[in-house]
Sequence to fold (371 residues):
Amino acid sequence: MEGGPGMTRRAGEKIRIAIAGVGNCASSLLQGIEHYARPEKRDGVGLMHLEMGGWRPGDVEVVAAFDVDRRKVGLPLHEAAFAAPNCTTVISDGLRESPVVVQMGPVHDGVAPHMADYPEEQAFRLADEPAVDVAKVLQESGAEILVSYLPVGSQKAVVAYAEACLATGVSFVNCIPVFIVSDPVWGDRFRAAGIPCAGDDIKSQLGATILHRTLARLFVDRGVRVDRTYQLNTGGNTDFLNMLSRERLASKKISKTEAVTSQLPYDAGASNVHIGPSDYVPWQKDNKVCFLRIEGHGFGGVPIELEARLSVQDSPNSAGIVIDVIRYVALARERGLAGPLLPISAYTMKHPPVQMPDHEAARQIEAFLAP
Fold:
């Protein structure tokens, strides 16, 4: 749609963001900002609104970026976005030259050891230089929001970035399943610091989780009892390669499982619900394929079974959602809000502080955006 709720567009102003992790998702985000900034892209397909509270996608400006891969650290951001092992679908004819140079971030547990065992075009190689002071970079760059795109399982690394945000007054948008925004202790810390935040674990525009949630809710709404369900996913990007290390998946499985089981008004039993990454298939690249099954029973105990297959380009599928979150957080900062932002987190994240039906979260978002 042309325009959207809220104020008229701001002339010349920018939402200044930093990015932690210049992988496929960051590449899609950057390409999406460029794509929707074009005058001819006025339909806003893939976004909640082309204009949100006066902000358009082209008003988002990256002022700092961090990574730990030697093929990206030290490169200008517009080049790092396409550096190996990134393999996402190209939706923009290149990116405008960026003055931002990717800086070395803190490593901590951000790299799974097995990643070094794969060919360089698929995996990862650690840059040989010391980490910068993230808080100092955020402060000097004037960043208002930091978007976390670190690998699944990066608990200590995500905490380091969250601490830097608290130290500098920068909002935190956590796109991965490390529980920061949904943790009451962290939520209270951001609230006390007067900083709005959103998280955890980004949903796609139409991905495996939102499809699974919707179908589970449909069973419930039509009076069918869900007995068993699974969701199996395969992909060939570094996210799936990273997740071959099963010890890094605990929070991911919790996040994806709760996103679906929150739609059931009863406990189906832990052994009857299996949701999580399944395997890494290199030639799939950024193509994610989901195999989904729900078994239930309806009237008279008669069985009902549903199977579905969903194929998506994984990284672009979430980029528009992140653009919406960034603009919502920018509005929250303007209005002096602090702490976890519940409606946008519930609508866009798998593991928000408070789960709510998507239609209710959307209603609250529209009420927030209304002039």
